[in-house]
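Q: Could you write out the predicted structure for this multi-component system? I'm mainly interested in how the pieces pack against one another.
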Amino acid sequence: IQLTQSPSFLSASVGDRVTITCRASQGVSTYLAWYQQKPGKVPEVLIYAASTLQSGVPSRFSGSGSGTEFTLTISSLQPEDFATYYCQQLYSHPRTFGGGTKVEIK
Amino acid sequence: QVQLQQWGAGLLKPSETLSLTCAIYSGSFNGNYWNWIRQPPGKGLEWIGEIDDRGSTNYNPSLKSRVTISVDTSKKQFSLNLSPVTAADTAAYYCARLNVRASGWPGYHYYYMDVWSKGTTVTVSS
């Protein structure tokens, strides 16, 4: 299963609402997770089961979708949110990642 | 709180074998899947494979002919071997726990990688 993220890069300002899309080449139900990776750091899970917020993750992050189309939304971008975001499907093997979306400061 | 600590050689020559081991601290080995993921410099994440507590494995087909993942449950460790390596295998390698837990919905479990090691940078160069 291939995951296509869009956009691959986006430039946004603090306070902006940001939406990242992840499309699967075939249905993955809701077996989809989102990760955040800051430069030089290890990925951290934000969302699992497409829409469940990981404990400790700020509520400005939200996820939605099922089947083949998913979105990660940041309701009000904060300085610490500038990072690269990856989706991953856990529906079948291999457990593929999307290509990533880099969020940079405008 | 579960922690993962990995170790292994960071500099290899082409045709050699990459060997990394990941140890699990302060947590149970059972009921989860233990994964290896890599990230070439400046690129995205690539899933390598996983093993469960019974030693059952799944591999990325793109690497399957060169990869072996094994487990030592008595030591709560799992290992990655990749052979032979080429320059294209230069990457940061991470071990991670794939947490599998019941959702409360019949037949549906949550799956997500919630614990990661700090990673090892492996460089393959002659």
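A: Regarding packing and overall arrangement: The interface with chain B takes residues 31, 33, 35, 37, 42-45, 48-49, 52, 54, 86, 88, 90, 93-100 of chain A (CB under 8 Å).
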